Amino acid sequence: MAHYKPPIYIYNHCTKHLARTVFSSAHKYDIASVSTSLSQHIPEAWRFPIIDCYSENSGTGAYDFNEVTFVWCDYSKSSTDLTVELFGTFDKLYKAIPLKRVEKSMYYTVSLKIPKGEVHYYKFKVNGQVVLDPINPQRHTDEGDNEWSQFFTDMCNHLLTFEKWEADLLQKITQHILPFRTTNGKRFLDYYYHALSNSGKRTASRLDETVGVVNFIDKVLTREETYHLVDYRICLEVIDRLLRKRNPFIDPVEMGSEIYETLYDEMMSGQFIPDWDYSKFNNPQYFMELIRRHTFTGAFCHPRYGGNIGAAGWEYISESNKDAEGNTLFNWKLAIEQPFGENLEYIS
């Protein structure tokens, strides 16, 4: 059901990002060309629409939703109220949801409770004209070649950035970085996810042996770090061709860990790498350091960001660091809200 947040909530989340009066380029979200979109001029435009936890804690079901607030900003600052409506895949496409003006400000908003783990597409209708969300840089083109604005809720595991082969190849690379590829690490993951599954928790869904790192990278390249998408696009293609040249008889995702370990060491060495196409990307060490940063961030971030599935990364640290009495030195559950932790006050 549509509802409307108090003005102070809107001002707190919007003003510092949208009240900009000097429209110099702040970001380059469109990697293919220089875009004239309004989102290019808004600092941290990826924050829109506002994806916030649904903060009712009257039962476990409440935590299965996000509160999504859509914002239309009237930079003309018209004194006459506009007619602004929203429609999208989160409801019947023909159903228009009205936005309301926040006091006499330039903001028009509406908030919806939408399930976690989903991706949706939407458009606005402003004074009868259908338009994309000029603030949100995320775009999706459907099978009919129609362009939509896009957003996703917490813990979404649908690929939004990578093609399937790119995600599979990246998973093979990131497996070499994390501690979970060791015998003890794999044993821990198998035990932990089995225990979560038996507990009946919805958060037990396991994406891969890297605790959702590839899913995290896929999402961070859709929003916060879109500027690195071109690096991944180029380098994953270079790596795929390099591996096929070194072993033309096996698909790269089927190759053993040894060939990936060799490539990993070569890329981190900063030395010349045979078969690497330097004409397309001349610094493989930089790319590997980028993957390492994203991998560790994804493995130990809050699960809402798509990695650290079921909080397995945190639990691994907890189990690996105990005092002489066997008590953990990293009791993360005390600081994290339900359903992952035990804190009843904190809402992420």
What does this structure look like?
This protein has 348 residues and is α+β, with helices and mostly antiparallel strands. Helix content is 30%, strand content 15%. It has helices spanning 7-18, 164-175, 183-199, 213-220, 229-246, 257-269, 284-300, 312-320; strands spanning 50-53, 65-73, 84-88, 97-98, 100-101, 107-115, 119-126, 129-131, 139-141, 147-152. The strands form two sheets. Strands 3, 4, 7, 8, 9 and 10 form a six-stranded antiparallel sheet that branches. A four-stranded antiparallel sheet has the order 1-2-6-5.
Map the helices and strands:
Layout: H1 7-18, E1 50-53, E2 65-73, E3 84-88, E4 97-98, E5 100-101, E6 107-115, E7 119-126, E8 129-131, E9 139-141, E10 147-152, H2 164-175, H3 183-199, H4 213-220, H5 229-246, H6 257-269, H7 284-300, H8 312-320
Antiparallel strand pairs: 1-2, 2-6, 3-4, 3-7, 5-6, 7-8, 7-10, 9-10
Helix pairs in contact: 2-4, 4-7, 6-7
